[in-house]
Each structure stands twice: as C-alpha cells, then as structure tokens.
Amino acid sequence: MIPIAKPYITTEEAQAAYDTILTGWITQGPRVLELEEKFAKYTGAKYAVAVSNCTTGLHLAMIVAGVKAGDEVICPSMSYIATANSIKYVGATPVFAEVNPVTYNIDVADAERKITAKTKAILVVHQIGMPLDIDAFKALCDKHNLKLIEDAACAAGSAYKGGKIGSHSELVCFSFHPRKVISTGDGGMVTTNNEAYYDRMKLLRQHGMSINDRVRHESKTVVFEDHLEVGYNYRLTDIQAAVGIKQLEKLDWIIEERRKIAFQYLDALKDIDCIRLPYEQEGYFTNYQSFSIYLKPNASISRNDLMTKMLDAGIATRRGVMNTHKESAYKNENPNLSLPVSEDAADRSIIIPLFVPMEQKDILFVISQLRLHLC
Ligand SMILES: *Cc1c(COP(=O)(O)O)cnc(C)c1O
To answer: Which residues have C-beta atoms less than 6 Å from ligand 1?
Structure first.
C-alpha cells in the first residue's frame, strides 16, 4: 500500500526526545524557547510563539487581533474546518468567500464583496502550501481597516516574493501535525512582527501567567507570578520542541525532495487534457504539502471512481480540500450559500501520495495508474 503521506522522522528526532525526557524538563521550557528562536530566524519574522497546535494558535491570533463576539471574519470555506472554527471560538461569525479557480486560494475580489460594517479581519489560507497573494490582501485590509491573519498551517517553508511565509504580516499560524511538511506529533507556531502581540500570546498560551516556569527556574531571586488575565493552556512541550528543532533543520531538504517528486508528477501528467495540475505563479514558491489534481468535466472517470480504482491498486488518495459550509457543523447556518468554484473543486479534486522518501518505483506506479484511468 502506498500511503498518502508519511512524516520524515529519523532516529535523530527520537534521540532528541529521549535526551529531553532525561533532562527532567519535559513541558514548555528551554527547548521551546530554542525552537521559537530558530523558527523566527528561519522564517524571517521578528518573533515566534510555540503553541500546542495550529488551531490554538489561530485562536490566540483572533484574540490578540481583537476579534470579538458579533464581529465577522472573512475566510475561505474551502479549507480545513479548523480555519472557521477558530473564528467561532471568540464568538465571531465566519463569512465564507470564494476561491480562485487556479490556485484555490481565497479570491481577493470576492473577499472584498463580503466586507460589511461588522467585518473585523480577513483570515486567509495558504492552501496545501501554495502561497496566496499576500500583498493584495494587505492592501485590501489597509483600505478597509481590517486585521489580516494568515492560516499557514500547511505552508512552513513556502515563500512569496522572496520572503518566507511567516515574515510578511503580523499574525501567521503554522501547524506541526504529521500531515504537514514537518511535525512534532501535534504542535504549532505563530510568527509575528508585532511585539505587543508577541507578549500577549506568550501570556495567553500559559494561563495568563506573568512570569513563566523557565524564568522562575532560572531566577537567582525569589519571584512571584501573577495571572494577568484569563488565559489558556496552549503549551507545546519541550519533548515536542526537541523533535521540532531537528525537523526544522531538515525542512529545506524535505521541501527540495518534495518538489522533485512534484515536478516529476507535473512532467509526467502535463499532456493529459482532462485534468488541471497545481500551478506555481512567478514569485511564488510552494512546499507541495499536498499534490492535488482537478478532474475537468471531460474526464471519462469520476473523481470517486478514480479514488476507488487507485485504492484497489494499492494507492491511497484523498478527496480535495473540504468545503466548511457543507459540513454538518456549518450547513444549517449557511443553507443558501453557494460557492460554485469551491464546491466544484472539492467534488472534482483528488490528492495523490507525496512524501519523503518516496521510492522511484512507487512514484512511477502512481503515475501509470493515473494515466491508465484518465487517458
Ligand atoms: C491542518 C490545518 C489546520 C489545523 O492544524 P492543527 O495543528 O491540527 O490544529 C488548520 N488550518 C489548515 C488550513 C490546516 O490544513
């Protein structure tokens, strides 16, 4: 069976976790601080705050951006459901915008149409690692005095106009779930260039505590912490951070390898006229967190039948990115919402295996099975 994805974890990560456990410092501490500093340096952001996962990072981003009950936040429906959920956590309403049919990233013109007097922020998503046009959204947010938040769950190591994702705006949230390009089991990071956001997110992720454990531990004098506001426990552990430090060292190499496989797929499938392949525009750099293929209406096989044929051949595939407004948790509040591009893409897209290391014979087998059923 060829899986859809597989984290690239080696004995180095296992050793780092082992060593950390034996230090006796196993939750948020020195390794978390080290990972934050290295991640900030890697992305080019001023600051980075480690969190328990990307969803909790998005929640903190909503809070520090000042999004509150009664506000509206524009986001794509076509995303993992956690994107919209993070808006709900602060009592605000997700307002779903359409995606662009080539990149599947949120469409700037439709986002602008959805702005109302209640709109507080736009939550954009770099879909499956493909960067979106950040400058266009920055300009839109500036024009309407809105906050910009980036869901970069899938986009560690992707880049836009020469800068790594994480460096462009004030709130960028990453995931280290095993389905993403690097992993700490679960885990996440928020990068920011705003010192006030940085300070408040550090507070909120650890119960609102004014002086964290590591600082108290290192202090030569007796210090007492205060709890400044109602916070959360959204900590990453040092065990996870130790794994993350090793993963981060490998990130550029992992992306290079992922891109080699993606280019091989692109080259081997480019002549099939009933499909549309991922498209990386000039100035955009994707980490190919996933490789999604869109089946045009002239395809002789349905997406679901193709998934079945691939599974029968021993190849795992997944449906394309979901539409949040079609899920049970959301469909009642959006009964008449129509997002034709998002709905069509979710119905007609298939994600194929891409992981590191992937054997050449497996890559060729995926290609040959796709060609067999699509041509
Ligand atoms: C995976 C993902 C998330 C959630 O990340 P977790 O770390 O699992 O919380 C959020 N948004 C998008 C777009 C994702 O792909």
So the answer is: 53-55, 79-80, 82-83, 125, 151, 153-154, 175, 177, 188
Task: Give me the domains of the chain, ranges plus CATH numbers.
Answer: 11-249 (3.40.640.10), 251-374 (3.90.1150.10)
pLDDT digits (tens, 9 = 90+) for 304-329: 999 999 999 999 999 999 999 999 99
The model's pLDDT over 142-192, given as tens digits with 9 standing for 90+, comes to 999 999 999 999 999 999 999 999 999 999 999 999 999 999 999 999 999
User: Cα(175) to centroid of ligand 1, in Å?
Assistant: 6
Strands of the 163-164 sheet, one edge to the other: 163-164, 159-160, 284-285
Determine whether 180 is an active site residue.
yes
Q: Which atom of ligand 1 is nearest to the CA of 176?
A: 7
Token look-up 């992981």 returns 355
Residue 56 Cα, ligand 1 centroid: separation in angstroms?
A: 10
Closest CA to 237 of 12, 44, 9, 16: 16
- The pTM of this model reads 0.97
